[in-house]
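Incident log, structure service

09:12 report received: a user says their structure output differs between two submissions of the same chain.
09:20 pulled the input from the user's history:
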Amino acid sequence: MKEFWNERYNAEEYAYGTTPNVFFKQVLDEHNLSGKILLPAEGEGRNAVYAAKKGLEVLAFDISDAGKKKAMYLAQQQGVHITYEVEGLHELKIHHEQFDVAALIYTHFPPNLLAEYHKKIGDLIKPNGMVILEGFSKNNLPLREANPQVGGPANVEMLFSVDQIAQDFTDFEPLQLEEVEVELNEGKYHNGTGKVIRFVGRKDK
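09:34 re-ran on a clean worker, output below:
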């Protein structure tokens, strides 16, 4: 997978654009979130840079060196600081840290690790902290077959459902948890009508 993402991010253009994900931006703005934010599988940094511009202390990580290079360049161009590690979740030395927010934006981990990673990320959130998630629904597959430009995994086991997300984040009060149809316009690889799961959860005290 590292080779796949390095190849995708090695292109001059930003694979998913340089503007933040619409849902991520909306939640940050509406809830006026602050403190430390964790951004797994952050790719080329579009969401990390926006979070930093909002005043959050950003820790992003990804397995792609090419993604980090472009993220750091984007941060420099926009005059903000982000911390970005090239590691997988298990390799990150953050087990004793606590975050105010984690944002999982199209972070489709391997099926054998998905529930474990979601729990691990949830454990890193402070009481009253929040998780923001947007990712492709299992019902996105027919839309992807009709229009490959919409993107998303072809493996149904890597996709999400409302029940699955509720089960993975049992320590969180769901402020929003739904499947919605969206019009994606994110760089080269997310374009067209897709079905996604959106989740905003607040960790129980």
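09:41 both user submissions now match this output. Likely a transient worker issue. Closing.
09:42 reviewer note: The chain has one domain: 2-203. Residues 174 and 201 are 4 Å apart (CA to CA).
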